[in-house]
Amino acid sequence: MHTTENPDGVAATGTIEETDVRMPTAQAQRLWAGTLLLPLRLIVGWTYFSAFWRRVVLENKLSPDAPGYIGEKFNHFLPNALGIKPVIAFFVTHPELLWWKLLAFTVVEGVVGLALMAGLFTRLTGLATSALAFGILLGAGWLGTTCLDEWQIGILGVGAGLAFAFAGGGRYSLDHLLARRWGTGGARRVAWMGRVEAAWTRLTHRGVVVCAVAVLALTLFTNQVFHGGVWGRLHNKSVRPVVEISKARITGDALAMELTRVEGADVYGSFAIGVTLSDAGGAVIAAWSADELARLTPADIANRHVAQVKPGAHSLVIPLGALAEVTLHAPQLRTLAPGRYAVELADISGLRWTADVVLGG
Fold first, then answer.
1. What is the count of structural domains for the chain?
2. Containing structural domain, residue 258
3. What is the pTM of this model?
């Protein structure tokens, strides 16, 4: 039996279990708050641990040569990432470093998810969860073909992680088990634990509203930037493909151009079924059919990123985030007079993209 005093100054006696139920102390109230979050803690913990599980145990998604390599998914973030685009661009242009980055990230996700489910160092793993989710939000918050998939995952992960950091693991956690084994009194048995808990209590009282407002501001800001979800016109950059043509030039019998896909579904490539080169009057000078594009060789395609432009069965496949210089040959290009021309790329969906080509001075 022990005697405690609640915030109103009324003494209460009973066992640890009894005071937990009646919540006569601030400590018991915090324990109860963490217990209430148990379902959410288990679910969020599994979502992060499952990333490790499916990439390493169920399938080998860390192998650059295997279908579904996670590096290609990371590459998909690049076109419209918020604030971290240079970091993503660096890794996708250095695939050997990207592999180590993905391995470390996968291990961290596994450790954080497992610790969160077990309730071990729950406040710390809650902060780690928010950090991981924040990275996902900035990189992939714009993706989602049927709804705002990645944005919802990211922003909810940020909020849930902060909730775990404030509330702790509750009764059903290793934190609680270890505290009961080595002392819950803090200042009486382990002085530093008492000081940390007291400091966290002050932070909770003073900072929870500030953190809540900050998360709300982050929610509204990213929702607007990625999807126009606060005001103006809604947009979803994952619905239809957009391919950009740049650095188009004619040298001898070769038309070279850089192709990069900046929008569209990440799980579905853009299928180029035709390329035409026209003069200023619109007359077609050279054309390459879907079958000709499908027969391009590796020498004709210089990929810059992990996601690669490749010949498909009946077209040229351009995945999201890919950047490649594609070279097409036609003998009639040798006799072209200097001037302005236009190259047009046709997608199987019916979409078309054009760019100017200037030959000569």
1. 2
2. 242-359
3. 0.83
